[in-house]
Amino acid sequence: MDVLETRELKYFVAVAEELHFGRAAERLGMAQPPLSRAVQQLERRLGVRLLERNRRGVALTDAGEVLLREGRATLDAATAAARRTRRAGGADNLSGERTRLVLAVKTAAAHELLQELLDAYAAEPDAAEVEVLQCGMCDQEARLRDGSADVALMHVPFNSLAGFDSEEIMTENQFAILPAGHPLAARENLSLADISDVPGLPPARWPRHGIYPPGPGPEIRDQTQLAQLVALGRTVAAVPDSARAWLWPEHAAVPLADAPPVVTHIAWPAHSRSTALACLVRTAVRLASSR
After folding, report:
1. CATH code at 90-172+262-290
2. What is the pLDDT of residue 96?
3. Which GO terms describe its molecular function (predicted)?
4. Are 155 and 210 in contact (CB under 8 A)?
5. Can you tell me the distance from the alpha carbon of 244 to that of 262, in angstroms, rounded to the nearest whole number?
6. Predicted local distance difference test score (pLDDT) of residue 89
C-alpha cells in the first residue's frame, strides 16, 4: 500500500530522530509497546525494513533514511497547510477573524520599500490584514516553507528562491560600511578587494541561503549586531543602498564599484491560490514599475 497516514509518519519520525523507542514514546506522550507495534506494522505495509534493532540500540536503514527525509517534509507541509488555511479563513473563519497575511522580512532591510508596499496594499478595497514577521538573516525561506509566513521579501544573492514563485521589485547597488575614522572612509569608492584584507578589520560574514562562508570575520545575525561591530572598529561589510537608513554617526559609507547588485523579490509558495496574496503581489509589481 502506498498511502501513509500522518500519525504513522509522526511515530516513525520521532523514533528515527531519537533512535530510541523509550525516548520517542516519552516525546509522543504514549507507551512504548504500541509505538513499537505501530512501526513494525508500517514496515510490514511498506515491505521494507526501516530500522535495525540490536542490543546497542536502533539505527536507520537506507530505506529508513529516505522515509525520515520524506516524512519530515510531509509533516512540515501538513503543518504549513493548517497554518495557511487558518489564516485564510476569512468569512468562513469560525472565530470571526479577518483574513490575514503574514509577510516575512529581514529586520531593518528595505524599510522604505516595505512601508510603501504596506501603505499601497492597505488602500486596496479587499486588502487583508498584514502581519509583518521580522526575521534574522535568511530566515524568510524557512518561514515560507513551514507555513509561518504566506509571503516574503527575499534578497538575492543572499536568499534562495528555489521552490518559490517570485517577482523582482527592487535592485540596489552596494556600499562598504566602515568605521568613520578609518583611512578607507576617505576614498570616493572602493572595490571588494579593498575591503577583503584590511589589517585588523576582517570582513563580516553574511549567510547565503542560511550558510556562513568560512573566514576570520564575525558571523552577522542582524543589522544591530553589524552596526555595533562596525562602530567598534571590529569589522567591515558590503550592504545594499537601503541600509543607509540605519547608519550611525560612527559609520562611513563608501560606494563599491564592483559589488554585485542586491535584488529584492516578493516570493511566495508556488502552489498558493490566495486571492489576498495575489493582490499583494500585484501591488508590489505596480510599485516596482513606478519606482
Report:
1. 3.40.190.10
2. 45
3. DNA binding; DNA-binding transcription factor activity
4. no
5. 14
6. 57
How far is Cα 152 from Cα 134, in angstroms, rounded to an integer?
Answer: 10
Q: What contacts 46, CB < 8 A, 6 or more positions away?
A: 63, 67
Q: pLDDT at residue 18 above 80?
A: yes
Query: Cα–Cα distances in Å, from 242 out to 41, 108, 175, 262?
Result: 56, 9, 10, 10
d(CA 241, CA 171): 9
Over residues 51-73, the mean pLDDT reads: 88
The dotted CATH code for 6-87 is 1.10.10.10
The reply to whether 174-255 shares the fold of 6-87 is no
Residue 203, classified by CB atoms within 10 Å of its CB into exposed (0-12), middle (13-18) or buried (19+), is: buried
Cell numbers representing residue 99 in the block: 483574513
What's the count of helices (H) and strands (E) in the chain, helices before strands? 9, 10
Residue type, 10: K
3-state secondary structure 93-162: CCCCCCCEEEEEEECCCCHHHHHHHHHHHHCCCCCCEEEEEEECCCHHHHHHHCCCCCEEEEEECCCCCC
Each domain of the chain, given as residue ranges in start order, spans 6-87, 90-172+262-290, 174-255
Average pLDDT over residues 230-254: 95
C-beta atoms surrounding 52 within 10 Å: 12
Task: Give pTM, 2 decimals.
Answer: 0.69
R_g of the chain, CA atoms, integer Å: 24
Grid cell, residue 191, equals: 572595490
Q: Which of 73, 287, 260, 84 minimizes the C-alpha distance to 163?
A: 73
The answer to whether domain 174-255 has CATH 3.40.190 is yes
Does residue 237 contact residue 177 with C-beta atoms inside 8 Å?
yes
